[in-house]
Amino acid sequence: MTHTMTPAEKHRISRELEAHIASVSEWDKALIEQAIEIFGADGRPFSMNTFRDLLPEMAHHTAGLVFLSMVNRKPKAIVEIGRVKSSSGPTHNKDIGVYVLAQFASWKAAAA
Hints:
By secondary structure, the chain is of the alpha+beta class. It is built from six helices and two strands.
């Protein structure tokens, strides 16, 4: 049985997420967003695996929050189109999102 979140639960989680995202430095956020925009500019899918090795170590810990903030923006900046296994050792091979920039989301859906 799955639990459907109440509006109050959704609001609480949204506030908690916003607080975590606000803790990301503007420099880290700008760096990660720039990497996302560069790698996604031609419509190719990307995940954190795509550019993890190019980011400074400190940005690795905040990238997930930046991805979430870009997915949750109105309008969305990026759209999740799939899942892959993380290539990062500390994540223990967990599933992570594969994304495209929002302007390519309908194009990727039509190609699938």
